[in-house]
Amino acid sequence: MSGETILEVDDLHTHFFLRRGVVKAVDGVSFALRRGEVLGLVGESGCGKSLTALSIMRLLPRGGARTIRGQVRLNGRDILPLSPREMRHIRGPMISMILQDPQTSLNPVFTVGNQLREAISRRIGMRGSGVIREAMEALRHVDIAAPEQRISQYPHQMSGGMKQRVVGAIAISGHPQVLIADEPTTALDVTVQLQYLKLLKRLQRETGMAILFITHDFGVVARMCDRVAVMYAGRIVECGPVQDVFTKPSHPYTRALIASVPTMTGPIGRLRTIEGQPPSLMDPPLGCRFAARCPQADQDCRDAYPATTHVGAEHTVACRKAGQP
Amino acid sequence: MIDDALLRVSGVRKHYPVTKGVLFAKPVGTVKAVDGVSFTITAGRTLGLVGESGSGKTTTARLVLNLAEPTDGEILLQGQPIHGLTGQARRQYRALVQAVFQDPWASLNPRMTVGRTIAEALIVTAWGSRTAIAGRVQELLEQVGLRGEQAGQYPHEFSGGQRQRIALAGALASRPKLIVLDEPVSALDVSIRAQMMNLLKDIQAREDVAYLLVAHDLATVRHMTDQTAVMYLGKIVEYAPTASLFRSFHHPYTKALFSAVLPPQPDRRGEEIVLTGEVPSPLNPPPGCAFHTRCPFVMPVCARREPELRQVAPGHLSACHLDHAA
Questions:
Q1: CA-based radius of gyration for chain A
Q2: Residue of chain B nearest A253, judged by CA positions
Q3: Which member of B190, B260, B276 has the closest CB to residue A193?
Q4: Contact residues for A229 (Cβ-Cβ < 8 A; gap 6+)
Q5: Contact status of A203 with chain B (Cβ, < 8 Å)
Q6: Any idea where the domains of chain B sit in the sequence?
Q7: How many whole angstroms separate alpha carbon A183 and alpha carbon A98?
Q8: What is the DSSP letter of A194?
Q9: Chain B residues lying within 8 Å of A218, measured CB to CB
Q10: Most-buried pick from A149, B4, B202, B223 (CB within 10 A)?
Q11: pLDDT tens track for A195-240
């Protein structure tokens, strides 16, 4: 699936400007999302993965977050300088988002039909029975049985999995070319998670949209993604096809992270851990941000941030020791 | 025969009446949150309770913690019934059975130093003098991998993983025999999760404390427990030594749970059973086997008669008509 690039994030810097200092939460993130692919963005809490998504959507939280440098090119056009009004025409038909908690994504005082119709009528520019038909079709499309009844229900009358389906239906109602899914299954039960992932995969195949899939779960990455980018302390440290990154993880952080996941097979013993904590992003180290926790780090690693190098045709890593045992 | 069980739960039910109206509330139904659950926990060992939301695993944990009275059935700790305790006996029970909950951000009082939070259990049981308590707090902090001098700090100065360690230190203060762990690692990051799991195992080995681990993640259960009970809609559907369960599981629901686990390796897709729909409401559980509405192997008998837990391998119980058909 090596199609053309549809979304390109280039040297993105989004910082929080707080009274006590500047938190460099996203600090030089670059990646490309290709047409029709699923790219995983994986990392632990606080690594900047969600803020990267919100920067792309131009939906930064209030309270001092600002994108201060970089470009986000959608179909070759930088969307960061666009006015809020212009952005409203981009969100929906071009790029859309699913958040973790369906409870907070839906408005509790409107029926799901109401919320779905609003999204649909904005796209096709009409109201009335045509929109209702389309809304019903959209619900059927996300495997909701008996849509004629569900359409007049309120969010609280639905289960978590069903609400997240409705959120999905709204997100893709504008036929976006790019969908950002930020931990869409974290709040769901495991058997429901599997249903939802299968649904997303089917929708992606049918519509040909590209998905930026944000998660902390390597199992979900293995199941859903074509390529994966690993984030640590505000930067991408490794990126490549899922197969390569899982079988030949080249960054010590990726290696340690994969090794620390408890497994369903193999010996049961002590789990591998990563000692220490991620650095403060208010005052990140000059060199490699993982150096303080890395068993292979030397003085060079601490002195300067490592360049990103190729370890495979499409597999890149930001580590001086890459390729060394 | 000597009863070697630390905790014995037999035939426990917890039903909540559902009413309509405010002033003259009429009962309109019953939520059978826990509906006839039995298991035992051996001293120093770990039992895992696995299930999805609505399975009753948290209600079961609350019953064991004596935070709720069972509608029916009995829970014995070291042979003594735990419900209906008052005064001194109740306080003693609280000292013997402790808990660590899922959310490390909600379980510590933000206005108390962590030392004070840990000391709380010691103070209410008049454990010792002020200096003795301070010494014990330091010892507990060190036991969970923190530094003794951190006792004077407030919760906001700690990360999620450290807070969970502090909650564990508090639970250990009264030297309990049993700690109920309700999703103790699911709010933690992957790398921190492994540290916490290792710590829990170390502490068990050192203190000989038993755990009741409530979890939804099967890999966590595999690494942490000796016995596993799989719950669905208020009932245990499969109950087995963990090693036996992970070697061969019997109940179709357990099968579905296992196939929903996504291994962190590409191209490692086993047989996949994707269930349709979600867990039905415990207000109106389906008749017969509660799982029959979603079961891929459903037979006519399943809707009529509820299957009993029966032995399918040594010490391995499963409640499914399929196992007894042959």
A1: 21
A2: B191
A3: B260
A4: A31, A39, A40, A41, A42, A236, A238, A239
A5: no
A6: 5-20+28-325
A7: 8
A8: H
A9: 190, 264
A10: B223
A11: 999 999 999 999 999 999 999 999 999 999 999 999 999 999 999 9
pLDDT of residue A187: 84
| CA separation, residue A285 to residues A14, A267, A305, B7, B303 (Å) | 17, 37, 9, 51, 63
The predicted-structure confidence for B261-287, as pLDDT tens digits, reads as follows: 888 887 666 667 788 777 887 787 889
Mean of the per-residue pLDDT values for chain A? 91
Q: What pLDDT does residue B246 have?
A: 94
What is the residue-wise DSSP string for B93-118?
HHHHEEEE-S-TTTSS-TTS-HHHHH
- Quick check: A146 contacting B, CB < 8 Å? no
Interface of A with B in 232-251 (CB under 8 A): 242-243, 246-247
Nearest-Cα residue of chain B relative to residue A218:
B264
Ranges of residues in chain B whose predicted pLDDT is under 70: 1-3, 267-271, 325-326
Q: Is the dihedral of CA A129, A201, A210, A233 positive or negative?
A: positive
Q: Which residue of A has its CA nearest to B275?
A: A191
Specify the CATH class of B5-20+28-325 in words: alpha beta
Question: How distant is the Cα of B1 from the closest Cα of chain A, in angstroms?
Answer: 33
Burial classification of residue B116, based on how many CB atoms lie within 10 Å of its CB (0-12 exposed, 13-18 middle, 19 or more buried): middle
- Strands A65-74 and A5-18, by their bridges, are antiparallel
CB spacing of B219 vs A263 below 8 angstroms: yes
